Amino acid sequence: MPVTVVRDAPENLVLIVSELNTFSEAFHTFPERPVGLIEIVFERSYHSGLSSPCQRYCERHQLAYARVSRQNLLNIERYLKRWQATLVLTHSVPVLPIRLIEPLAHGGINLHHSKLPAYRGGNPLLWQVIDEVDRIGVSVHVLTAGADEGAILAQCEFDRPAAVSKAVLASMANRDCGLPLIKKVIPAWLDGSITPQQQPTPSPTSPANHISFTNLLSIVSERSVSLNGLWDLACCLERWPPEALPIDPWCRWVPESMVTDCCHRPNVGQQVARWYQTERVGSRLHLRHPDGCVVFRAQFHGPTLLAKLLL
């Protein structure tokens, strides 16, 4: 049985994220005492000097703010000490050096968009769309040295909607599962009234790593993604990878429709390798599938087009 601890004062919470989203923008409403937010950015953003949405959010809610480059994660330590952090919360960030977390009175916990131990890694939502799962999982777990390997504190699932962007899917995961879970877990974790459940070492799925655009078509083909799944994937990405499509520099191809009786499919007897290939049909692009095709339209980007014309 867990032993409940009686505390005299609220604990200092620090949130570490890579962007402002539906989870991080609710940080000021979390239990205990939210004191500061650390934003992990790429090197070019670190030196830009521009105010970010995370920084403006902290200014509105009187929270401390710091920006740390992905190349210098150990700089996080100075802010944890300065703000006297006792618990770190993370979401959608690189694996942190465990030496940053170990000195804290209550360590760290992470929000992950899958039902662990499945889909450990940095891009779990996209891989769940590729695998055409019916339900999206969300887990809150203890931070450890391994990627998403810590003991599970709480989990939930929701029905995966069809044909939505990754941003919409992430927003639903945070709103419907992530925020309710984290607000229950924080006081239970601090009071010692929750029992962490150790994860099995092997994961039932491949690592949910980030996918290069050049590898996407081969992954889709190898997994025999259905036509509906291909349409969902195109909508999830909001465009098809430019490396996979013939495209002009000033436009991108965005999903328009799914056609179940596509007259431009390869004839019977042509190699299976021709499935998941694209074909220009008038002003549209068709991504071929054994059961039809996904149709893309060109979306022009005005500023880039203007610059091209002026050259």
Keywords:
311 residues; alpha/beta; Rossmann fold; 2 domains; 7-stranded mixed sheet; 4-stranded antiparallel sheet; 8 helices; 11 strands
Q: What can you see in these coordinates?
A:
The protein has a 7-stranded mixed beta sheet with strand order 3-2-1-4-5-6-7, with helices on both faces. It is built from 8 helices and 11 strands. It has 2 domains: 180 residues, Formyl transferase, N-terminal domain (Rossmann fold, 3-Layer(aba) Sandwich), CATH 3.40.50.170; 98 residues, no CATH class. The chain is an alpha/beta fold and 311 residues long.
Write the layout of secondary structure elements.
Blueprint: E1 12-17, E2 33-41, H1 43-46, H2 53-60, E3 64-69, H3 76-82, E4 87-91, E5 108-112, H4 124-130, E6 135-142, E7 152-159, H5 166-191, H6 213-222, H7 227-237, E8 251-259, E9 278-281, E10 284-289, E11 292-300, H8 302-310
Parallel strand pairs: 1-2, 1-4, 2-3, 4-5
Antiparallel strand pairs: 5-6, 6-7, 8-11, 9-10, 10-11
- Proportion of residues in helical segments: 25-40%
Query: CATH fold name of the largest domain, please?
Result: Rossmann fold
Distance between the termini: 72 Å
Look at the helices and sheets and give the structural class.
alpha/beta
The percentage of residues in β strands lies in 15-25%
Unreliable stretches, pLDDT < 50, 5 or more residues?
265-273
CATH class of the largest domain: Alpha Beta
What is the CATH architecture term of the largest domain? 3-Layer(aba) Sandwich
Q: How many separate structural domains?
A: 2
Per CATH, the superfamily of the largest domain is Formyl transferase, N-terminal domain
- Taken from the alpha-carbon principal axes, the silhouette is globular
